[in-house]
Amino acid sequence: MSLSCIIVEDLQVAANYLKNCCEKSGQVEVRGHFSNVTDALSFLNSNTVDLIFLDVEMPGANGFELLDQIAFSPKVILTTAKSEYAYNAFQYNVSDYLMKPFTYQRFIEALQKIQPSKETISTNSASDHIYIKTDGKLIRLNNDAILYIESMGDYVKFVTMDGKKYITHNTIKNLEEKVSKQHFLKVHRSYIVNLHKIDDMRENLLFIKGNEIPVSKANKADVFRRLNIV
Amino acid sequence: MNNLKTANAFVFNAEIDANYLNSLYGDDYNYMQEVFNTVLDEYVSLTDNIEFSHSSGNLAALKASVHKIKPVFGFVGLTSVQQQCQQFEQICGTVSSPDQLSGEFEALKNKIFQSKLLIEEEKKKLELFNSNCS
């Protein structure tokens, strides 16, 4: 297992210790340390990570406000001692609490709780269709019927040719690995589009059947590579 | 050289929970020195926040600032001071103004001041120990 993470923690000694644990484990790559929510958010607006080690009480916005504002759903391990955050932690699908200071053994136990998301989708990336779980049933969607997929926090929305919208518990990051690479491309941290359905592209926007889809700077080169530009 | 370090184990001040430090860092005394250094680097700003929130009569900020420094004492093995911070936080929840905490606040303030001296002293001892072992 190799996880990318950031540490959001204003206590320097705690952040350093956490970095040390990550390095020692050989399982977690620390991509940044931020001592406040604003700086962390700025990083996460153009980068994704698998895991956030998150302190709750920091100067300015608190840790949960960060989770409210990011467009993807990383795993979260709280580094706080306050049990009064338990309800919020449940709401935000927090994987574990680490009470500072924690032992290395305890850190490893927290990492072991980071399991791949339960699949809500059954698919084969070479297949011409996928199944999504929504409203208590599995629904078959042909690749050709899907226009695009949009992130909605812990959920995603499939928008189809017939104008229907299907919402299911999943993430863009997870779907990116599951959907047919021939048909689909992630163009933004919140969007995967069906390349066969793009009508036109202007500046940083794709147009698909009247829908405007933003293209991020990070994904723009991939989009150009995949479009059949003559 | 590592054998020498193991043979002559560092002896912490009796107020420091050496077993607890061992559970965090094993016998990595170089890393412990780094931790003590970092703690001292941020000690002043953490204690300033406590002083300021108390003098400005802001109970919520006082509680939060004590909560913030609490784990710092754990990182240097001062588990009893960590507990004292915890108790102070709890008392904060039972009063309506910092003025009602004058006794507890003075006791905590003194403990925090004494702890800084102790951490400085232990850091010096660790520096000497590590330099002798290298």
Fold and architecture overview:
The complex is a heterodimer of chains A (230) and B (134). Chain A is an alpha/beta fold and 230 residues long. Chain A folds into 2 domains: 3-112, Rossmann fold, CATH 3.40.50; 121-226, OB fold (Dihydrolipoamide Acetyltransferase, E2P). Helices cover 27% and strands 33% of the residues of chain A. Chain A contains 7 helices and 16 strands. Chain A has helices at 12-25, 37-44, 63-69, 86-91, 104-112, 172-178, 217-226; strands at residues 3-8, 28-34, 51-54, 75-78, 96-97, 121-123, 129-134, 137-142, 146-152, 155-160, 165-169, 184-188, 191-194, 200-202, 205-208, 211-214. Chain A has a 5-stranded parallel β-sheet with strand order 2-1-3-4-5. A 5-stranded antiparallel β-sheet of chain A has the order 11-10-9-13-12. In chain A, strand 3 (51-54), helix 3 (63-69) and strand 4 (75-78) form a beta-alpha-beta unit. By secondary structure, chain B is mainly alpha-helical. Chain B has a single domain (2-7, 16-133), classed as Four Helix Bundle (Hemerythrin (Met), subunit A) (Up-down Bundle). Helices cover 78% and strands 0% of the residues of chain B. Chain B has 6 helices and no strands. Chain B has helices at 2-7, 18-25, 29-55, 59-75, 79-92, 102-133. In chain B, helix 3 packs antiparallel against helix 4 and helix 3 (29-55) runs antiparallel to helix 6 (102-133). Chain B is elongated. The N and C termini of chain B lie close together (7 Å). The model of chain B is unreliable at 1-7 (pLDDT under 50). At the A-B interface, helix 1 of A face helix 3 and helix 4 of B.
